Amino acid sequence: MKIAPSLLSCDFSIMGQEVERMDRAGADWMHLDVMDGHFVPNLTFGAPVIKAVRRYSNKPFDVHLMISEPLRYIDDFAKAGADIITFHVESDSDIDATIERIRTMGAKPGLVIKPNTPAWVVFPYLEKIDLVLVMTVEPGFGGQSFMENMLPKVRQIREECRRRDIDLLIEADGGIGEATIAACAEAGVDVCVAGTAVFKASNAGEAIAQLKALCGDAE
Ligand code: DX5
Ligand code: ZN
Predict the structure, then answer these.
(1) pLDDT exceeding 70 applies to what percent of the chain?
(2) I need a surface site. Which of 34, 130, 197, 206 has the fewest CB within 10 A?
(3) Ligand 1 close to Cβ of residue 33 (< 6 A)
(4) How confident is the model at residue 217 (pLDDT cuts 50, 70, 90)?
(5) Which residues are identified as catalytic?
(6) What count of Cα atoms within 13 Å lies in the side-chain half-sphere of residue 28?
(7) Tens-place pLDDT, residues 108-159
(8) What per-residue confidence (pLDDT) applies to 118?
(9) CA 164 / ligand 1 centre spacing (Å)
(10) Of 72, 24, 20, 64, whose CA–CA distance to 45 is shortest?
(11) Does residue 207 register a pLDDT over 90?
């Protein structure tokens, strides 16, 4: 299981050092939540902030775009140093064009589905993307409760990939911590985002190790 700490829960006054702290704590990826106050009812940060903290870690930057028009900003996020760019199927941009733009810019594309969106919506794109992100909370805020009833969608995507012999990663995001991560692993999740569970822990390294251990990963 890969752990991607969500910087949404970091101390923004020292965001670069927070990225560095997560790097040292054993984070596999850095998860960066971009919100536009339109697609979701919250605002966070954009490409210039990601560019500024990029140099604090060499780990993959996993940029989760919760914005209405992702296609307009793909170049900015790729140039800022995003390795993985995920965007919502519920956004207004053309899905194929956005996937293509992410590839052209040298990043890995992924599609995200909100809790009310069924798994089959991403099936036509599975060959074209590297990752599916299944939201396990309504996007917009950290610290919400995990929606266990999203895990059947993870299983459906996993099963469809198996059937069509497609190799992609499944990521889950929202409310993941010690009480919920084992269920994610069991459902077939490869990457878990964790904001509160890692940033609010007294020792981030121990928290990440413990999350992995709960998935049966040896440390
Ligand atoms: C929610 C974000 C998540 C969030 C996770 O819209 O996409 O990445 O920061 O935070 P926790 O782990 O606290 O639910
Ligand atoms: Zn996220």
Answers:
(1) 99
(2) 206
(3) yes
(4) confident
(5) 33, 173
(6) 15
(7) 999 999 999 999 999 999 999 999 999 999 999 999 999 999 999 999 999 9
(8) 98
(9) 31
(10) 64
(11) yes
Three-state secondary structure along the chain? CEEEEEHHHCCHHHHHHHHHHHHHCCCCCEEEEEEECCCCCCECCCHHHHHHHHHHCCCCEEEEEECCCHHHHHHHHHHHCCCEEEEECCCCCCHHHHHHHHHHCCCEEEEEECCCCCHHHHHHHCCCCCEEEEECCCCCCCCCCCCHHHHHHHHHHHHHHHHHCCCCEEEEECCCCCCCHHHHHHHCCCEEEECHHHHCCCCHHHHHHHHHHHCCCCC
pLDDT of residue 219: 53
CA distances from 21 to 4, 15, 32, 87, 203 (A): 13, 10, 15, 26, 10
Neighbour count for residue 24 (Cβ, 10 Å): 11
pLDDT at 218 over 90: no
Q: Is the pTM of this model over 0.85?
A: yes
User: 63: Cβ below 6 Å to ligand 1?
Assistant: no
For residue 25 the two structure tokens come to 């704590």
Is 195 near ligand 1, meaning CB less than 6 Å away? yes
**215 pLDDT higher than 90:** yes
- How far is residue 211's CA from residue 205's CA, in Å, rounded to a whole number? 10
